[in-house]
Q: What sequence folds into this?
């Protein structure tokens, strides 16, 4: 879905984009670029990026007019997409994203908030003490909000939701019948930067968090908003306490994740998945449907549908038990 919160400063002439990247490319001067998006959601007159062969199949089908990529990957793009070859795809993508969304780098606290008793939600929401509400917030019917919770700018909450105490929400869409327990932080920017000798380059995060119907988020959970795409939790999925979901992660429906699990950026978890406590899942991986992952496991490669794995690196439970007799 399009980002409803961050304001696009474009469109820009493609020559302006090339100037930022310090690239000379023979190209028609009157070409306009409307937005920057990921390979899957990019449309005609958009620019995207392609930095890993893991995304070859998606790259072949992208509708983007331009793509920031490498010499080794450019031939996987369709003829309708002009390759912009750079030395470091992610740094170049960060620079272009900042051009379109200049306010997406920093993530300061929201000083627009007001006490809920001073807003239109005073008589519509059952709220504890010291609840603060920011601008561009929508809250549905029959919702409860606990003490000291801050609903910062750009949040939509559906009907029949329960938000615990000491929780912070921003840049998020919460669907109907969702429970978020105490001390959660949802919608803050992800952990994205590029190390440098003098100053680390921060990566913009223009995505949001979407939590679908009938989910429960346990105490102390942190769910980062996406960078270019969104972070999304599927229907009827339950997260235990102290879980971290990084930017761009997609979790399917009817999934259960136990305490202290960490899922790194841009990984996809299927439907009906069970993940044991303290498991770790590396970034840019795909965990299939109906998968079971044992507690304490370390997942460092894709897992197919219907698999049961355990250990580090995670392997089939049969292999794990054989190796640990």
A:
């Amino acid at each position: 879905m399009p980002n409803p919160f961050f304001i696009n400063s474009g469109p820009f002439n493609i020559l302006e984009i090339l100037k930022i990247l310090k690239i000379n490319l023979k190209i028609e001067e009157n070409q306009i670029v409307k937005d920057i998006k990921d390979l899957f959601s990019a449309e005609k007159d958009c620019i995207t990026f392609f930095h890993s062969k893991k995304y070859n199949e998606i790259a072949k089908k992208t509708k983007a007019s331009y793509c920031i990529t490498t010499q080794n990957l450019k031939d996987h793009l369709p003829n309708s997409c002009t390759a912009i070859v750079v030395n470091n795809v992610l740094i170049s993508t960060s620079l272009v994203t900042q051009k379109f969304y200049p306010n997406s780098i920093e993530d300061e606290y929201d000083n627009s908030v007001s006490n809920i008793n001073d807003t239109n939600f005073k008589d519509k929401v059952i709220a504890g003490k010291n609840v603060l509400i920011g601008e561009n917030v929508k809250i549905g019917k029959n919702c409860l909000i606990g003490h000291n919770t801050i609903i910062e700018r750009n949040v939509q909450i559906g009907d029949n939701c329960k938000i615990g105490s000491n929780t912070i929400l921003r840049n998020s869409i919460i669907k109907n019948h969702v429970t978020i327990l105490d001390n959660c932080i949802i919608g803050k920017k992800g952990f994205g930067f590029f190390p440098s000798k003098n100053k680390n380059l921060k990566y913009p995060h223009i995505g949001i968090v979407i939590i679908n119907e009938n989910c429960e988020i346990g105490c102390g959970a942190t769910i980062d908003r996406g960078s270019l795409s969104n972070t999304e939790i599927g229907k009827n999925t339950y997260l235990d306490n102290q879980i971290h979901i990084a930017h761009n992660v997609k979790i399917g429906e009817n999934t259960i994740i136990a305490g202290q699990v960490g899922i790194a950026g841009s990984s996809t978890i299927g439907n009906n998945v069970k993940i044991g406590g303290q498991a770790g899942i590396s970034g840019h991986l795909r965990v299939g449907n109906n998968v079971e992952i044992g507690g304490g496991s370390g997942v460092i490669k894709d897992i197919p549908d219907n698999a049961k794995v355990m250990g580090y690196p995670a392997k089939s439970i049969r292999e794990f038990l054989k190796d640990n007799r």
